[in-house]
């Protein structure tokens, strides 16, 4: 799709903490810029890593209502002749959506949240419904929450799957990746990537590992959490005498290398809106063990690209892991099938095309907009 010189997009996010929303925000802004579109990026926090946007603007937000942000966003819209706003998650959708409404331009919002209570009817969600022109769910599962729980009109909602830039990164040989990370070449390596809260299910993986009674299996967990979350998992590991098998990595910077070094990617989330990390694992041709919740079941096809088990079920996890640990051929088959699925369905270019289709439909539907020139 050729860039539209009249299209000027304001991408707004409330924070850029580590996680899928941050990756998707950066990928969206950068891919739009690489295609020649004009983009301004705004964060209500700070940019630890700037995007490729023409400008990366930090508009700090404090607790409570801060409608001064609306006027700051209106100023940005007017200064840069913005004619479409795209906001990520509820706070940015409320403030940026209201600014867009007052400027007479359309705004779409992407809903990333895993927590189910974020989709309940509320004053904030009713306001968001009023100020946004279109609503984007990151999975079909979340689409149902938008229409059934929040009562949003289905004709104004779309599903846009996330993509991964990992497809363009050449993989390392397993032996080379392990040498780089100081991992023993003969270990069976399990990898999890996600914050340490209970919702990610790390406690279930640790419990399953204890059931396996296989000292050659090592579990590496990448991610951070609160002091209480870290203490809870460390206490469980030590109580189960798994000190030599479970390693907490903290935040990792080279996720692709860790995926190249593992045998199995495992993340038994109790809830997940989409699960970008699962397509990243597929992009590195890794077999996946996950749970059949939220958007995960739209990414992982059971017995084809990975194995799905019920949430909060360490016994089922142990059974799935045993099946893959003992069969390298099955791991390879699942990993190859996962790569093909990700390559066909979950690329960044497919995500951007979907967003641009929505934007062009909004512009045709709602007519001319404010232009400060």
Tell me about this structure.
The protein has helices spanning 20-34, 68-79, 90-103, 123-131, 140-149, 174-181, 202-212, 227-239, 255-261, 276-283, 296-299, 314-325, 328-345, 348-366; strands at 8-13, 38-43, 55-58, 84-88, 107-111, 134-137, 157-159, 188-193, 217-222, 246-250, 264-267, 287-291, 306-309. The protein is of the alpha/beta class and 373 residues long. The strands form two sheets. Strands 3-2-1-4-5-6-7 form a seven-stranded parallel β-sheet, sandwiched between helices. Helix 2 (68-79) crosses helix 3 (90-103), helix 7 (202-212) crosses helix 12 (314-325) and helix 10 crosses helix 13 (328-345). The longest helix is centred in the last third of the chain and has 19 residues, at 348-366. The two termini are 26 Å apart. Residues 368-373 have low confidence and may be disordered.
Largest sheet: 7 strands, parallel
The average pLDDT score comes to 93
Strand arrangement across the biggest beta sheet: 3-2-1-4-5-6-7
- The stretches of 5 or more residues where confidence is low (pLDDT under 50) are 368-373
CA distance, first residue to last residue: 26 Å
Rg value: 22 Å
SSE topology string: EHEEHEHEHEHEHEHEHEHEHEHEHHH
Helix content: 40-55%
Shape: elongated
The helix-and-strand class reads alpha/beta
- Percentage beta strand: 15-25%
Report the count of strand segments.
Answer: 13
SS field, number of helical segments: 14
């Amino acid at each position: 799709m050729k860039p539209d010189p009249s299209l000027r997009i304001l991408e707004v996010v409330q924070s850029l903490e580590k996680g899928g929303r941050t990756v998707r925000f950066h990928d969206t802004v950068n891919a739009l810029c690489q295609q020649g579109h004009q983009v301004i990026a705004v964060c209500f926090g700070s940019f630890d890593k700037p995007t490729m946007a023409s400008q990366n603007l930090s508009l700090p937000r404090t607790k409570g209502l801060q409608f001064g942000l609306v006027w700051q966003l209106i100023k940005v819209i007017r200064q840069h002749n913005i004619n479409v706003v795209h906001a990520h998650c509820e706070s940015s959708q409320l403030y940026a959506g209201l600014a867009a409404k007052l400027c007479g331009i359309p705004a779409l919002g992407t809903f990333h949240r895993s927590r189910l209570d974020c989709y309940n009817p509320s004053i904030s969600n009713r306001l968001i419904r009023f100020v946004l022109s279109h609503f984007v769910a990151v999975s079909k599962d979340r689409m149902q929450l938008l229409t059934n729980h929040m009562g949003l009109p289905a004709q104004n909602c779309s599903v846009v799957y996330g993509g991964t830039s990992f497809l363009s990164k050449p993989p390392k040989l397993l032996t080379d990746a392990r040498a780089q990370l100081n991992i023993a070449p003969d270990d069976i390596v399990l990898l999890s990537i996600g914050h340490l809260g209970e919702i990610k299910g790390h406690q279930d993986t640790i419990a399953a590992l204890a059931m396996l009674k296989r000292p050659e299996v090592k579990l590496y967990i990448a991610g951070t959490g609160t002091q209480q979350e870290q203490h809870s998992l460390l206490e469980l590991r030590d109580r189960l005498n798994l000190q030599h098998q479970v390693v907490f990595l903290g935040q990792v910077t080279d996720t692709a290398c860790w995926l190249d070094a593992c045998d199995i990617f495992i993340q038994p989330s109790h809830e997940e809106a989409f699960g970008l990390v699962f397509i990243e694992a597929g992009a590195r041709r890794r077999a996946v063990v996950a749970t059949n919740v939220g958007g995960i079941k739209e990414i992982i096809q059971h017995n084809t690209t990975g194995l799905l088990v019920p949430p909060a079920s360490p016994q089922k996890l142990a059974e799935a892991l045993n099946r893959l640990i003992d069969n390298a051929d099955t791991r390879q088959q699942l990993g190859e099938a996962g790569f093909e699925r990700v390559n066909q369905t979950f690329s960044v270019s497919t995500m951007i095309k979907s967003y641009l289709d929505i934007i062009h439909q909004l512009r045709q539907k709602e007519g001319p907009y404010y232009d400060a020139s």
